UniProtKB/TrEMBL annotation:
Pfam families attached to this UniProt entry: CbiA
Signal peptide: none
Coiled-coil features, chain-numbered ranges: none
Domain named CobQ/CobB/MinD/ParA nucleotide binding: residues: 6-225
Name listed for the protein in its UniProt record: Carbon monoxide dehydrogenase
Gene3D superfamilies, alphabetized: P-loop containing nucleotide triphosphate hydrolases
InterPro entries for the chain: CobQ/CobB/MinD/ParA_Nub-bd_dom (IPR002586), CooC (IPR014433), P-loop_NTPase (IPR027417), ParA/MinD_ATPase (IPR050625)
GO terms under cellular component: cytoplasmic side of plasma membrane; cytosol
GO biological process: negative regulation of cell division
Domain of life (superkingdom): Bacteria
Length: 251
């Protein structure tokens, strides 16, 4: 598997926006092809990237229970559906996992999906996974090595506490993580001192700050893809500098 960046964080902290800006950075710096996996049940990475979502893997999983044509095996059906769900962008491909399981047994479908995704991943040099807070989708994959884990928070105490809890959860999962960074979004000024649990969980050298950017908020309000933010936007300059530091050291 290629170089993997996973993102996690409480809803509303800017995690998906950061994932989109990371993919933009990778493409502009020749780090491609990129496979983007939207593993958040509230799938909206496609909106950030400016592409239309045609379907999710959870839709395919539901269809598999009732709609496999006669004479077609379930694995071939799921592979066909996964190809239909794939969105081809400029320098990246995107696939959305969709909502988690409902009532009933999904073991067979989930195993098929995991195997198909693991095979798909091998075709890409870079993988970006935008997770739910608990990273449940990612924990199901058999390819679980993460080169860089970005846990995203806002400056609020609740957001920081959630990031610490997610970090602890990740440590309990069968996932090897090379480096973990806490990214604190929407900073209005210097952070000052960090709470003790934040420092114990991440360490001062593994905390990155990103500024509040009114232009980013404007793009969100107007429904514009944030991947189209101008190069001189403060959030773009800050994330570009962050990614340059993190990826150049790890590659």
């Amino acid at each position: 598997m290629g170089y993997t960046v996973a993102l996690g964080g409480k809803g509303g902290t800017g995690k998906t926006t950061l994932a989109g800006l990371l993919i933009r950075y990778m493409i502009r710096h020749g780090m491609k092809p990129v496979l983007a996996i939207d593993a958040d049940a509230n799938s909206n990475l496609n909106d950030v990237l400016g592409v239309k979502l045609e379907g999710t893997l959870s839709d395919a999983r539901e269809e598999m229970k009732t709609s496999v044509p006669t004479g077609m095996t379930k694995d071939i059906f799921m592979e066909m559906k996964m190809e239909q769900c794939m969105i081809e962008g400029d320098g990246f491909d995107l696939i959305a996992m969709g909502r988690p399981e409902g009532p009933g047994c999904y073991c067979a479908a989930n195993n098929l999906l995991s195997n198909l995704i693991d095979r798909l991943i091998k075709n890409y040099d870079y993988l970006v996974v935008d997770n739910e807070a608990g990273m449940e989708h990612f924990s199901r994959l058999t390819q679980k090595d993460v080169d860089l884990l970005l846990l995203v928070s806002d400056p609020s105490r609740r957001g920081l506490t959630a990031a610490c809890r997610i970090a602890e959860l990740v440590r309990s999962l069968p996932i090897r993580v090379e480096k973990t960074i806490l990214v604190v979004n929407q900073m209005q000024n210097d952070a000052g001192s960090w709470p003790e649990d934040v420092l114990e969980t991440f360490g001062e050298n593994h905390i990155a700050l990103l500024p509040a950017d009114p232009l980013l908020a404007q793009f969100d309000r107007e429904g514009k893809p944030t991947s189209l933010l101008p190069d001189d936007a403060s959030i773009v300059k800050a994330t570009d500098a962050l990614f340059a530091r993190l990826l150049s050291k790890d590659k």
